[in-house]
Amino acid sequence: MQTKEALLSNLLRDSWSKGVSYPEYRRLVEKLAGEGKSTGTIQSEAYINYTLLNDRRMKRWDKILKFSEATLNTLISFPSKVNWLVLTESWCGDASPALPVMHKMSELNPNISLRIILRDEHPELMQHFLTKGAMSIPKLIQLEPETQKVLGTWGPRSTEATQLVDAFKKEHGALTPEFRESLQIWYNKDKGQSILQDLLHLLSLK
Questions:
Q1: CB-based contacts of 97: which residues, under 8 Å, 6+ apart?
Q2: How does pLDDT run across 177-190, given as a tens digit for each residue?
Q3: Predicted local confidence at residue 206, as pLDDT
Q4: Residue 174 has pLDDT above 80, yes or no
Q5: Tell me, what DSSP letter sits at residue 131?
Q6: Residues with Cβ < 8 Å from 186, sequence gap 6 or more?
């Protein structure tokens, strides 16, 4: 009988093999947005609208995202090979600013390999990486490529964005559409920097 660690390792290896690159994921989201569809098991009007919004947002992020020279030098110096496996869905608003940052980091340092899988197609894996008991996405799992050992995780939001969300939930009980819209405005003002700093910390570069 396999140990829990061995079972998880096999699950991660299988999930990694089924993952797609960021450009492949972008093409999928763009196609779905054009067809009035979303990923996932639920094809609701809200999810379809969020998919359309996220396609536009990621296009913008891909164009405007910039790293400082100091950050570039720090990132390029990262010497170890790691795999970044990300669980997400096309309708996830928090993924639209995060995935472009992850992709740019992996482009700048070839030691970082990025693959994306859909949460609803990998429920068993998602159960191993819940956030406060919830299947929150995006969820990045940092792995040692050979052994599939989990080196760390990130998600669903940056530390700063999480503080904003937690404070709103504490006062109002649940997130509202208006708050989600204000969070996207905050992401735009932040320009991906809080996500970047968290991911540098995950790589132990901060």
A1: 57, 61, 187, 190, 192, 195
A2: 899 999 999 999 99
A3: 61
A4: yes
A5: B
A6: 161, 164
Q: Is 19 left (phi over 0), alpha (psi -120 to 50) or beta?
A: beta
Indicate the class that CATH gives domain 4-156.
alpha beta
Q: What is the C-alpha to C-alpha distance for residues 48 and 42, in angstroms, rounded to an integer?
A: 9
- Percentage of the residues of the chain whose pLDDT score is greater than 70: 99
- Other residues' Cβ atoms within 10 Å of the Cβ of residue 204: 10
For residue 57, give both structure tokens.
Answer: 């947002």
Q: Give the span between the Cα atoms of 77 and 167, in whole angstroms.
A: 36
Q: Which two tokens stand for residue 178?
A: 């208006």
User: What secondary structure does DSSP assign to 20-42, as a single string?
Assistant: B-HHHHHHHHHHHHHHT--SSS-
For residue 85, give the 3-state DSSP assignment. strand
Q: What is the mean pLDDT of the chain?
A: 95
